[in-house]
Give the backbone structure.
Amino acid sequence: MIKRIIPIAILGAAIVGNSSCNSNNGGFKKTHGIEYKIVKDAPGKNATKGDIVEFNLIAKADTTELGNTYKQGTPGHMRVDDVKNNGDLMAVFPFLSAGDSAVVLISCDTIIKSIPAAQLEQAQKMQPWLKKGNKVTITINVISIKSMDEMQNEKKAKAAQQMTTDDKMLQDYFAKNSIKAEKTASGLYYAIHTPGTGDQIAVGKSVSMKYTGKTLDGKAFDSNVDTAIGHHGTEPLTFSVGAHQMIPGVDEGAALLKKGSKATLYLPSPLGYGEQAPPNIGPNMILVFDVEITDVKAAAENPQMPTAEK
């Protein structure tokens, strides 16, 4: 769970399901192997390459809901780029402006063609809806369309505001619980319980880490120590420090430790998942990680990391 996750917006057509929708009527148009219908056409400039589209999305498989940004608590974001494959949700964004709503249908036949033959049987076992003749249905509501600069500036302003809020919450938490923690320039707090031995871990080193992740109220959401929490078993997590494979606070925190160190890392939400948090955590949550560095080696060529839950 401490690995970086891919926001729902980047998943594109991977969030899909079969649907009883019928595109034989109702004004659906075709482009790049998908069918789309603009349900609400608001005035304004359509998205162009390089723009960031902010949107809400619902994906269903018959009556089974597969994806819902409303329930996730934060909209999705996607950078408009060239369409590289048939069935790519990206293809519909140049037809949309802020305030528009659309329904997109993607044929499972198109998806099947993109899956290597050796993997198709397993994919269909895992996703029973993935059958020829079925169709994907995705409902999209566009909130805003902004340039990359506008989006980055807005993101930085929100993160700075959230960092101030989180820092105050953490200081109150430390005072209430008599916790002594050091603060880094980024806003990360840490408390080292066992110093460890040897040199401080350098950027580029491969570390093996035991961890348990909690929210500030003590609710554990993942662990590779306690098998009752999370899904990663009990094998230490291995990653290269400074390679941006982990969420920022854990990546930075590891570089403060040594082999054998035991510590607690307190991550303001911008150093964790921020707004794009998994549903079992929630957006803008302060995270607490109890960690132990079990080994330090030269950087691994192919570090093995758990896949984040969403």
About this structure: Residues 181 and 240 are 25 Å apart (CA to CA).
